[in-house]
Amino acid sequence: MAKRGPYGKGIERREQILAAALHTIAERGFLATSVAELAEAAGLSQSGLLHYFGSKEDLFVAVLRKRDEIDIATLDALTPADLIQVIRRNTQVPGLIELFTHMQAAAADPRHPAHEYMRLRYERGTAAFAATLRRQQGAGLLPAHLDADATAAIFFALADGLQSRWLIDREFDMTAHLEAAWHSMIRDR
After folding, report:
1. From CA 141, how far away is CA 17, in angstroms rounded?
2. By the 8 A CB rule, do 30 and 99 touch?
3. If we measure between CA atoms, which residue out of 161, 160, 136, 162 comes closest to residue 148?
4. Angle formed by the axes of helices 113-138 and 148-168, to 10°?
5. CB proximity list for 154: less than 8 A, separation 6 or greater
């Protein structure tokens, strides 16, 4: 049941804004989209848009959280094949990769709104991925020598780096490189 009253309406409106922002940034690109254009896409003024988020940086972090929420909802388990599929789908939304890459760089500053989002994203994502790798090891699907925690951290870092490279050269096949790296990581020694 939907929430009623001003609080519920605020949550609903915020979700509508995020949907419009995801669509607009994915279609036009992060660098080619202004806050004024995002406000227009959501049917608001700039100040009306920022009322729901506080600042443009907070809005962009909320867009990334929403993108993560959508990606995770489509996965049954966080397997290597699932992550590679997410990277493959990302080629269809280069604007969101631009946004992620810019926010990732800005997050190096602990005062930036994206800092905590990125820190928790990597912490939770690599922990969940490492747990899946350990389950696959227990089922005999992956070699026992594989260090699940290190492999998860390396895989996430590699995926992000390959996406950044792809932004520079759209002919670069990041998923093929990620798949090759994965197969190299799991090869029996």
Report:
1. 42
2. yes
3. 136
4. 130
5. 185
pLDDT in tens, 6-31: 556 778 899 999 999 999 998 898 98
Q: At what angle do helices 94-106 and 80-90 cross, to 10 degrees?
A: 110
Q: Name the token pair of 108.
A: 């190096």
- Is 148:61 a contact under the CB 8 Å cutoff? no
Q: Which residues, 6+ apart, have CB-to-CB distance to 77 below 8 Å?
A: 132
Model pLDDT for residues 58-88, shown as the tens digit of each residue:
999 999 999 988 877 655 567 888 888 888 8
Buried b (16+ CB within 10 A) or exposed e, 164-186: bebeeeeeeebbebbbeebeebb
Q: For residues 91 and 48, what is the distance between their CA atoms, to the nearest angstrom?
A: 32
